[in-house]
Specification:
alpha/beta, TIM Barrel, 8-stranded parallel barrel, 486 residues, 7-stranded antiparallel beta sheet, Immunoglobulin-like
C-alpha cells in the first residue's frame, strides 16, 4: 500500500510539474532567432460602404488613416463594374466611353488616408467587352447593385494582350500623370498626381476568367511594359492567385526565362481564407478547422518560398488576403462577437508564423464587409461605424511589431497559447495568442510591466492596457496580447 501511495504522489507531482511547464513562458533574450522583415497590413476592397453616402464612410477611412500601415492593398472589383471598370463600352470610330465618376471618390479617399505611406493598387477587373462572350455583358444602371455576372469570358478578343495593356496604361496615367489621351486622340484631364508604389496585375486569375499561368504571364508582361512607360517608379506585383495549391503558377511565373527581357519581377502575391469544416456546425467549433487549415497553408508557403528563392530570390512575397469565410447559413443570424476575436487570433497567428518564414507582407482581409458582401471578413462594424476586434488585433500588432524586430528564443509548452518574444524599437516585448476558447493563465519571466490586449471584453473598443502583477497573466478565449518588459 505504501508503495502504491508513493507511486500516486509521484504521478501527481509529475502531472503538476508538466502543467506548470506548459503554463510557464521562458525567454532567451540573448538569443536572436531571426530578424523580421514582415509588415502587418490590410486590404481594402471596393463596395458601396466606401462611398461618401455610406453611414460608415467617415469612420472607415478614419480607421485606415489612424492605422498608418504600409503596403495597403486597394481592389475595386467586378461585382460593382461602374466603380471597377472605367471604360464600360468599347470605343467606336466617333466616341470613347471613359468614365471615372464612381472610381475616383473612393480612390481619392484612400490615397488621402494613406498619404505618405505605400499602397498596392489593383483595378482588377478588365472591361467585359475585351473578352469573347455569347452576348454583350449588361451593366446595371444602379452603381450599388451587385453584379456577380459581369466577369465573363475566357478568351480575349485581342489575344496579344495589347488592348488590355493600353487600357491599364491609360488608367495609371489618369492617377499618376494628371490625365491621358484616349483611343481617338482626345486628352482627358484628371488633375491626379498620386504616387503609386505598387500596381498588382489582375486579381485571382485562377478564378476570374480561368486564366492559365502561361496566358497570365504574357498578359503581365504586356501590361507591365505599357504601365512602366507611364510610371517608371511604380513596381509591380504578380500572380495574386486565390489558391496557392498549384505550384505551376509559381514555377512558371517566377522563372525569368518565361518573361520578356527586362520585365521586373518585383513581387508575388497569393491568398488564404480559413473555412469551416463540413461537419462543424456552431461557430464555436470553427477554431479547430481554422487553425488546422492555417497550418496546412503555412506548409504550402514554405514550399512556395523554396520555389521563389530558387528562381527569383529578389522578388518580394506578399500574402495580401488573410481571413476567414463562413458558410452561407451562418449569415442568417448575427455573427457572434466572439467570432471577431477568433478571426483576429488566426490573423495574429499567421502573421507570427509568416514572420518566422520571412514573408514581406501579411495583409488582413478586408477593411469593410457587410451583409450580402462577405460580412465575415469585415474589420469594421457596419452597424456603428467602429472598428471591430479584427481591426484592433491588426492595430495592436502594427503599433508594436514590424520589420527589423529581433525574434528571441521563446518556449511555452502549451497547445492553446502561442508565445514569441521580440526586441523592437519599443524594447523587450512578448506576443501572446490564445488560439482557443479556454482561459489560460501564464507565468511570465521577471520584468513584465504591462499587457496590451484584445479580447472578448474589449469588443469594438481599442485594445486595452493594464499592469502585470506577480509576473502572471490570464488570457481570455482568443486573446491577442503584447506584454512589455523592462
Amino acid at each position: 500500500m505504501r508503495t502504491l501511495n508513493i507511486l500516486c504522489v509521484a504521478i501527481s507531482l509529475a502531472i503538476t510539474g508538466k502543467a506548470a511547464a506548459q503554463n510557464t513562458v521562458a525567454i532567451q533574450w540573448e538569443k536572436t532567432q531571426r530578424i523580421s522583415r514582415t509588415t502587418p497590413t490590410l486590404q481594402v476592397v471596393y463596395n458601396p460602404m466606401l462611398r461618401d453616402n455610406s453611414p460608415i464612410y467617415k469612420g472607415t477611412f478614419q480607421a485606415l488613416q489612424d492605422l498608418g500601415a504600409s503596403y495597403v492593398r486597394y481592389v475595386p472589383w467586378f461585382p460593382y463594374p461602374k466603380a471597377a471598370v472605367v471604360e464600360l463600352k468599347a470605343p467606336t470610330a466617333q466616341q470613347t466611353f471613359w468614365d471615372f465618376t464612381y472610381a475616383d471618390p473612393a480612390m481619392e479617399a484612400l490615397m488621402k488616408a494613406q498619404e505618405g505611406r505605400s499602397v498596392v493598387i489593383n483595378f482588377s477587373t478588365t472591361p467585359a467587352w475585351m473578352w469573347k462572350t455569347a452576348k454583350p455583358v449588361a451593366v446595371d444602371s444602379d452603381p450599388d447593385r451587385v453584379n456577380w455576372g459581369y466577369n465573363q469570358g475566357t478568351e480575349l478578343v485581342d489575344t496579344t494582350g495589347r488592348q488590355v495593356a493600353e487600357y491599364y496604361a491609360r488608367l495609371l496615367s489618369w492617377y499618376t500623370r494628371g490625365g491621358f489621351t484616349d483611343e481617338l486622340g482626345k486628352y482627358h484631364s484628371s488633375g491626379h498626381h498620386y504616387k503609386i508604389d505598387y500596381w498588382e496585375v489582375l486579381n485571382e486569375p485562377d478564378l476570374e476568367h480561368n486564366i492559365s499561368p502561361q496566358l497570365y504571364t504574357r498578359l503581365y508582361d504586356a501590361i507591365v511594359t505599357a504601365m512602366h512607360k507611364v510610371s517608371p517608379a511604380t513596381k509591380f506585383t504578380g500572380i495574386s492567385v486565390a489558391y496557392e495549391t498549384n505550384p505551376t503558377w509559381f514555377e512558371y511565373f517566377l522563372n525569368p526565362a518565361n518573361h520578356r527581357p527586362g520585365i521586373p519581377l518585383d513581387a508575388i502575391s497569393y491568398h488564404f481564407y480559413g473555412r469551416p469544416s463540413v461537419n462543424t456546425l456552431p461557430i464555436g467549433n470553427y477554431q479547430y478547422s481554422f487553425f488546422d487549415q492555417a497550418n496546412g497553408f503555412l506548409d504550402r508557403v514554405r514550399y512556395i518560398e523554396a520555389i521563389r528563392k530558387r528562381l527569383s530570390p529578389r522578388t518580394m512575397a506578399q500574402i495580401n488576403e488573410i481571413g476567414n469565410i463562413l458558410r452561407d447559413q451562418d449569415y442568417k443570424e448575427p455573427i457572434p462577437p466572439t467570432y471577431w476575436n477568433l478571426a483576429g487570433a488566426m490573423y495574429a497567428y499567421l502573421y507570427l508564423e509568416l514572420t518566422k518564414i520571412g514573408i514581406d507582407v501579411a495583409g488582413e482581409s478586408q477593411l469593410v464587409g457587410y451583409p450580402t458582401q462577405f460580412p465575415d471578413v469585415s474589420m469594421m462594424n457596419w452597424t456603428n461605424s467602429k472598428p471591430n476586434a479584427r481591426y484592433w488585433v491588426l492595430r495592436l500588432l502594427h503599433d508594436n511589431l514590424g520589420p527589423g524586430d529581433q525574434l528571441k528564443g521563446t518556449s511555452l509548452g502549451s497547445e492553446t497559447v502561442v508565445a514569441q518574444a521580440f526586441v523592437t524599437k519599443k524594447g523587450r516585448q512578448l506576443l501572446l495568442i490564445n488560439k482557443y476558447d479556454k482561459e489560460a493563465t501564464l507565468k511570465l519571466p521577471e520584468g513584465a510591466q504591462k499587457i496590451s490586449y484584445v479580447d472578448e471584453s474589449t469588443g469594438d473598443d481599442p485594445y486595452a492596457t493594464k499592469p502585470v502583477t506577480g509576473n502572471q497573466v490570464t488570457l481570455k478565449p482568443h486573446t491577442v496580447a503584447i506584454v512589455d518588459f523592462n
